[in-house]
Amino acid sequence: MPRLLFTFMLLLCGSATDAQPRTDKFLEDLLLQHASPALKHILQHPDSFRVQLIYTEINRDAQNRPTFKHYYYHVDADTYFNPASTVKMPLAFLALEKLNRLGISRNTPMLTDSVYGGQSAVNSDTSAENGLPSIEQYIKKVFLVSDNDAYNRLYEFIGQQAINEGLWVKGYPRMRITRRFVPMTEEENRHTNPVHFIRDGKHIYDQPEAVSTVQFDFSKPLLMGRAHYNKDEELVNRPMDFTRHNNAPLEDLQQILQSVLFPSSVPPSKRFKLTADDYRFLYRYMGALPFESKHPAYDTSEFFDSYTKFFRFKASQGKIPPYIRVFNKTGWSYGFLTDIAYFADFKHKTEFMLSGNIYVNRDGTLNDDKYEYKEEGYPFFKEVGDIVYNYELKRKRAYAPDLQIFEDATAGLGKPAVAITRGDTTKRRIALVFTGHEFADGGKHIADVLKKHKVKASFFLTGTFYETTKFGPLIQRLKKEGHYLGPHSGRHLLYCDWAKRDSLLVTRHQFEEDLALNYRAMEKQGIPAPHYFLPPYEWYNDSIVQWTGNMGLQLVNFSPGTRSTADYTYPEMGKSYRDSKTILQSVLDYEDQRPAGLNGFILLLHIGTDPRRIDKFYFQLDKLIRYLQRNEYELVTISRLLSDQ
């Protein structure tokens, strides 16, 4: 046996003897104090219902850094529950990790071959916009509706051995993922298909079939129920054997989710090797609802809003408030229900994690599709979720959480792709936006003025800017002082013709690759992947808007009406040139002459300009801010300006 595997087996066997059911009196009392008779009945019979709950209280410090306090109810890693579709969550993370190792983007078409018994090939995906399967599309399906085939394809891409060893090395020795979700023998599940990644008709990576040689510990029998139906639909009057099924302790699943939502909260050894854009993508689709997806699209009469949101919402199948997002993964099978969830309430500045499972199978017969999901299971999740949520609303916090990263990640879901050029015109808010590519001569002065007036601004900078060594200290200062840092393209490409705006000068692939370069440069500066994107030259067309939306991003641009964007011009440009006095006056005139003034305005300036411009407008910034504040405008970041949109 390989040394690494032997070590994991020792950990698994050794820890199994130490595990005991864990219950914290605080959580038990909280639940019983508010429980209905039905919930009390379940809580008073935790062994029958195999109930386990983990409530995680999250507290932030002044720098918004989270700390976690876990409360347990009857949690025991040795009490088996079938994890069902919850195992799809770590496979999604492992698949992205593997893509990063290979240097392949997640939207690259992946074709699956078949060479062994029980395998099937995949060469198309009608749910995808381009009609082709990809890891990105499979992950969307996994979180939107818990698609089984999508899980199978991730399983085949990663491979059984790599899945398990990848989780064990991260500190989850009890995790055991042995099978696809399709009828297959144990040996067939050890064999995984060849896959091919294709770009522009060319193979960029060919992965051969693989055979897992990993040795699982099946020494502890896991028998459930009093009877079951076998694969031939014959009643067998003895318990069902889960010994060789997938296994995922509740505490491990909770920690895996926490490691992705809050990477810095776990040791580096427990983190998945994901990019900042991977995190943004995962947050978006863990929190998305079926109706909010266009590709894939779903019949919402079957896949209703709370289809995969057990805590609080599935029992009633009602609408989820727009200010609440649940980032989670559920599973249901053989009478077991499980939900691993993080709640973010943007309106009430409330967050917490809640994980739980329950077994509802009164007749004790498995595989008969007769389980009390609706009668007992979903109401259990609703009531427990409501009790914890209501407690969280009243709980005092030293610091309200800043949930912007999660709000931005889910912004615009379910809405058509549009370019936003102005915020709410009924609110006296303005976003000062600075763009930059090759010049940063105004950076220090701008940062000093913003700090003096306690103003947070937004900076959209190119990959070239982020990569320029001499700009590094300025970028880090802007980041430290709480300004919004966003993308402005990788190499400041001109997307479409100046004279014929509908005429594209880049392909979609070039656009996506260039923007990805921008995001990679930001990640090297330690900047989380932002949601808002301001195009280079502030010039784009409908195709660029659509491509941006398909990437889960929001395109923004300056509000027209002033000459602020002309602050880059210099006298040699002739009629295009505007001096600083003229630019400032155009802003003041607009504010004075329009009924809504500058409400919701995105006022764009440049962080630096060509040396040929001597009259630098950023030296007017102090005067401009004093004027705006005197007129009772609140100066906010772009994300704050557009958070309600």
Largest pleated sheet: 5 strands, antiparallel
Figure out the total of helices: 21
Indicate the radius of gyration in whole angstroms: 27 Å
Distance between the termini: 57 Å
Give the strand tally.
23
**How does the overall form come out from the CA principal axes?**
globular
Strand order, biggest sheet?
A: 2-1-14-13-12
TL;DR of this structure?
34% of the residues lie in helices and 17% in strands. With 645 residues, it is of the alpha/beta class.
Walkthrough of the structure:
With 645 residues, the protein is α/β, with parallel strands linked by helices. 34% of the residues lie in helices and 17% in strands. It is built from 21 helices and 23 strands. The strands form 7 sheets. A 5-stranded antiparallel β-sheet has the order 2-1-14-13-12, sandwiched between helices. It is globular. The N terminus is likely disordered.
